[in-house]
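Q: Sequence in, structure out?
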Amino acid sequence: HVQLVESGGGSVQAGGSLKLSCAASGNTFSTHCVAWFRQAPEKEREGVAVVYTDGVTIYYADSVKGRFTISRDSAKETVYLQMNNLVPEDTAMYYCAEDRFACLKGPKSRLARDEYKYWGQGTQVTVS
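A: Exactly. Output:
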């Protein structure tokens, strides 16, 4: 049974930083790529960043490039999202998701919501 638990959300002022964590369980971490998504009120859920199983193949949405950093710790089965220079437009519920095949299907799939099978419950980030 795969379980993802996000933590680290909160309220910050513009220009501030937060670090989100996604703790995984279920013995799939080593074979699944893990991504962060976010969903603002009345908006579609969008992919923010993804890290492949090798830990070094990483992609970001254009809106967060240069500000967000995704990383994974295989020993802890945890993926992190370091968010710097936050702006009000970053306000959203942030979710982590994992899937075995999403990263293998090409550029259109690696940050596509419908390609991910397992999801956490989310953690709220509010920037004012």
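The radius of gyration is 13 Å.
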